[in-house]
Each structure stands twice: as C-alpha cells, then as structure tokens.
Amino acid sequence: GSTYYKQAIALFREFNDREGLASSLAMATMCGGNYGTATMVPAANPTEADREGEEALKIAQEMGWRAGEAVALMMWGRCRCFGLAGCRSRQPSFLFLNEVGGLGVPS
User: Fold this and answer.
1) Residues whose CB falls within 8 Å of the CB of residue 58, separated by 6 or more in sequence, listed in order
2) Given CB 3.0 to 4.6 Å as the disulfide criterion, which of 39, 42, 98, 103 pairs with 33?
3) CA 35, CA 1: separation in Å to the nearest integer?
4) Helix residue ranges per DSSP H, the chain
5) Could you tell me the mean pLDDT of each successive run of 10 residues in the chain, 107 residues long?
C-alpha cells in the first residue's frame, strides 16, 4: 500500500489537488506503524510517516477543511501515539475534538 500512496501523493502534488494530497498524506501515515500493526514491520519509515501526517494537517488547516483536519489528526495520532514513532503528544487531537464538540472536556 505504501507504494500506491507515494504514487498518489506525487500525482496530487503535480495536479495541485490539495484535498487529495492532504487525504493521501494522512492515510500514508498508517504505513509507518500504528497500534494495529505493532507486530509487523512498517511498510514505510516512521519518521517519514510522521512528517506526512504533519503536512496533511497543515494543508487541511490552510484550506479551512475541518473534515480533512479531523482525518489528518486521527491518522497522524495513531502513528504518533501508538506507532513506532512513540507517543509524543495527543494534545492537538484533543483540542480539536473539544473545539468541534466531540469531547465536551473543558479546555
């Protein structure tokens, strides 16, 4: 799957399709390892997957695409908090969910 994501990412960049690019970058993070694949060798470099998640979030935020932002945070969070990259911070995901009313937790 990581090969196809890389191809899709390159094509979305070429055609300046930011929504497709953000979506593919977010999904590509899953190839870097996550809690569901912890017993497997990752198909992609976890550090590269982390960068892809960060880029996906940035693009979605620049577009004002809240659904894309949610997907990027969800996929990137799986990579960061449960994957081989290690848990560094869950705070952006929780702040986002609270902002859109998903958690109901005071800031």
Assistant:
1) none
2) 42
3) 17
4) 2-14, 18-28, 46-63, 66-77, 91-99
5) 92 98 93 69 77 94 94 83 51 58 48
The pair of structure tokens assigned to 60 is 């979605």
Between helix 18-28 and helix 2-14 the angle, nearest 10°, is 160
Map residue 46 onto helix, strand or coil: helix
Q: Angle 46-63/18-28 helices, nearest 10 degrees?
A: 150
Q: Are 59 and 13 a contacting pair, CB within 8 Å?
A: no
Please enumerate in sequence order all residues whose Cβ is within 8 A of that of 10, keeping only pairs 6 or more positions apart, or say none.
none
Residue 76 and residue 23 in contact, taking contact as beta carbons nearer than 8 Å: no
Residue written as token pair 């912890």? 38
Angstrom distance (rounded) from CA 36 to CA 78: 9
